[in-house]
Amino acid sequence: MSTDDSRAGSIRPALLVVLAILAVLVVAVISNLGSSAAERETAAPEQPGVGPARLSAPSAPSVELEAPVGALVERTVVVGDQSFSGEDDGVAATPDDLPRFSLRGQLIDEFGQGLEGIELRLESVGEPWHLTPPAGFDPDQPLVAETDAEGRFALGTILPTSSWVALTAASPPMRAQLRRDFGRAGGRNEPPLQAGENDLGRIELAECGLLHGLVVGPDGAPVEAARIGVAGPGRGQRVRSGPDGSFVLEHLPGGSHVLSADCEGFLTREFESVEVQPGRTCEQPTIVLEIAPTIAGRVVDASGRPIAAAQVWGVPERGGYSISAEADDQGHFEVSLLVDRRYGLTAGRPDQTPPMWDGRWQEFPPGAREVELVVADKPSFRISVQDAEGQAVEEFGLRVIQVRTTSGGTIHSSVFGTPAAVVPHPGGSAQVQADPEVDDFTVFAPGFVLQRGTFDRADAAGHLVVQLERQSGIRGRFVHEGRPVPHPMVSVRADRIPKVPGAPEDRYDIFEADTRRDLGDVQGSERSLRGSADGTFEVEGLAAGTWELELRGPGAPTTWVELLEISRGDVLDLGDVPSSPGAALGGTIVVATGHSAEGLRVGLGSENYPDDEPFTETDPAGRFEFTGLRPGRYHLWVHAAPGVLDENYRERVDLGPQERRELLVDLTAGATVEARLAVRVDGEPAAGFGVWRLQQIEGESAADELGKTDANGRCVAWVKDGSRLRFDLRNGRGLSVGVSREFEVRGALDEELDFETGALTVHVPAESTLAEGEPAPLAIRSSDTDAPRSFFTWLTPRADDRTLEGDWSINLGPIAPGTYTARLSREPTRLSTTFEVVAGTTTEASLQYE
User: Lowest-pLDDT range, 225-229, 391-395, 644-648, 785-789?
Assistant: First the structure.
């Protein structure tokens, strides 16, 4: 054997040992990977055609989670380097085992096709996602997902404690925007997200249009940073023009919009009936802004001394956006106006907040100079703060708030329940300036109840004494089926009590106005907080009186505890508060033969609890159910639906504590039929014009708009058999001049209308009393004996209606052919003319003095 062979023979045994060790390690790794894959497959089984959702985590890059629609994403959620998983029983959760949820749905277009690649965000509004998040979870970070090829999406993580979360989508510019709000806050939000699966179903993002335009000044130079606003169908928008004066408004539904443009130093312009067509970029004619007039003067005190850096505020007559300016070191100011009208101005010291409009504001015309605004010193008051025993309280916060106008109107102020900063006040007194006619005050000190007072109780020397009440409280633990409810949401508010103390309980009807509250408006304001992980809670800072407690939490029904009497300075210990199912209301909806009762939207409106108005949809059998309701008076609503119900159904329901009520709602008499109209004007589809239903209500004629014609001139509406409909071709001034038709619906309606029209422009002499923005009555009457017609409208000139010669030239748009007489009355001016309208031509009608 050679030397090389000898060496090779000695190496092979060692190499075999190394390879054996490596093989064992590989088998272990593969086994571990297989186990992890099996766990992931159990947590979220794959479905074909569904892509992953992304969960943005603060302490790590975005983590890819397999999130097919129909799978519970929340079973295994990876945030940072920590994993949270397991079954959710809704109770006794720990920071490592919080309740979880999934949210899924599908974005589709108007043809039912899925919209791919749209990003969605789910985030909390105004507060953290969770008050006690687990380690590695950022409560301020939104969840992000993207729709797959079929438009489906899925999101999931720990259930939020936030009272308001919002789902939004980054829609393409020519698609409708999406925003869905969930939670008890916000006023009209949808119900909160629930632990487990939440399915939003199919969500249509309709096709929209764009509006492009240019803003320039009177010299033709582009105006940068002009504010462009649009109002009409859909959500209002506001954008700013770029350096070249151009702007683009996106996500605009088809139809007629109102466009406005304003910029500091220029007058506001407004354009009515700006038409937008879905799927198109519409061009707005160049917007020319005129230089705004100004009002200039100075701000002085009662002695005539200038007030440096004084604040100036203004409001135009007949209402509109307010303006403001700051005076210089010598009290001089100059403020640009937004509209060419008289303005009411007032002023205040540098640290003063804007006052509300009242009779003391001075009015000035545009261009006024040497205006003098006097800031009068308010009377001085000394407020002494004491406890119930008369001992001085030397640390407190004091806030003066305007709550009334000089005309006696009341101003709602949201800062009443907000304590002022607590600072030392030696001797327990503070000096303030206030106007007793319009101002109130609040005082807050640690350990005491927030107190509101008025200055009219002061003595002749301007001194008043405020006695604070020692705060009380409520504490307890919320339990469900014997186990604590983690982090319960706790709310307290002033409760109703009988007006007659000691009245028998059977005479106490909570549905009648025979109750009162024994707490003031500040102390009686609602308080809310989150309980601890073990279900315990404590509410502090309450006044003595009668309170109501509301408890909510994961896996437990909302529970109310009423008529809790709290003594001054005491803490009422409730111990364990067991969950209670509350009242329930269910029912079945019956509809006319040939229609389905499935998917009808049913809601509950409440007189006593306007912030808690749930809604649901009926199942295939027409069933609906509301549970966990508070006792009180409700209004059951069934929303109008094509073919089933022509207008909302309403029924009053009174529910007692834990009462269960079953209703049968018969809607067979509300069945509707389909009415179709196709309208052409001068051979072209008439888009954006209204179809109206005519009614007699309490002996008076009334009309409500059912809809507008689309880009093809078509409108479909559902109405009761026998209804009378009217189509109006209204021009840009809202005037329908001879171009209308009425119908009576029998069984169904399918009509095609074809109108011939001319155009009408009315000329008014410059020396008339007609003025921009001021309405004047215009009457137009047809002279045709076979079809006499008369029309009346308020004619409001705009800045672009004035000619170079100073006359008014007002385009009234389409009008039916025929002979007419027009009369304009604005005291002391009366003008009239007679004119002929020919189809396909423009008639120039010049009004002359009578």
Answer: 785-789
Q: What is the 3-state secondary structure (H, E, C) of 523-581?
A: CCCCEEEECCCCCEEEEEEECCEEEEEEEEECCEEEEEEEEEEECCCCEEEEEEEECCC
The alpha-carbon radius of gyration of the chain (Å, integer) is 35
Return the pLDDT at 404: 64
Q: Are 217 and 286 in contact, with CB atoms under 8 Å apart?
A: no
pTM for the full predicted model: 0.52
Give the mean pLDDT of 832-837.
89
How many Å from the N-terminal Cα to the C-terminal Cα in the chain? 136
Check: CB of residue 543 under 8 Å from CB of residue 495. Answer: no
Measuring CA to CA, which residue among 300, 43, 51 is closest to residue 153? 51
Question: Which residues make beta-bridge pairs with 740?
Answer: 728
- Give the tokens for residue 313: 């505020």
More confident position, 37 or 725: 725
> CA-CA distance, 123 to 56, in Å (whole number)?
11
Confidence category of residue 686, pLDDT binned at 50, 70, 90: confident
Find how far residue 273's CA is from the centre of its chain: 25
Cβ-proximal residues to 609 (8 Å cutoff; 6+ apart), any chain: 630, 632
Q: What is the DSSP string of 596-633?
A: --TT-EEEEEESS-TT---EEE--TTSEEEEEEEPSEE
| 96 close to 133: Cβ distance less than 8 angstroms | no
pLDDT at site 572? 95
Instruction: Tell me the C-alpha distance between 264 and 217, whole Å.
Output: 12
Contact 557, 459 (CB under 8 A): no
Give yes or no for residue 406 having a pLDDT over 90.
Answer: no
Beta strands 571-578; 472-480: pairing state:
parallel
The mean predicted confidence, pLDDT, of the chain is 78
DSSP tag of 183: S
How long a stretch of residues is the chain? 850
Closest CA to 478 of 422, 435, 538: 538
Contact assessment for residue 203 and residue 228, using Cβ atoms and an 8 Å cutoff: no
| Percent of the chain residues topping a pLDDT of 70 | 77
Query: Helix, strand, coil shares of the chain as percentages rounded to 5?
Result: 5, 50, 45
Q: Do 569 and 510 meet the contact criterion of CB atoms below 8 Å apart?
A: no
> How many whole angstroms separate alpha carbon 255 and alpha carbon 232?
8
From residue 844, give the alpha-carbon distance in Å to each of 19, 776, 810, 841: 101, 19, 10, 10
Q: Taking 70 as the threshold, does the pLDDT of residue 19 lie above it?
A: no
pLDDT for residue 771? 76
The span from the CA of 539 to the CA of 530, in Å, is: 10
Which is higher by pLDDT, 846 or 693? Answer: 846
The separation between CA 784 and the C-alpha centre of its own chain, rounded to angstroms, equals 50
Query: Residue 420 CB: number of other CB atoms within 10 A?
Result: 17
- Angstrom distance (rounded) from CA 756 to CA 249: 33
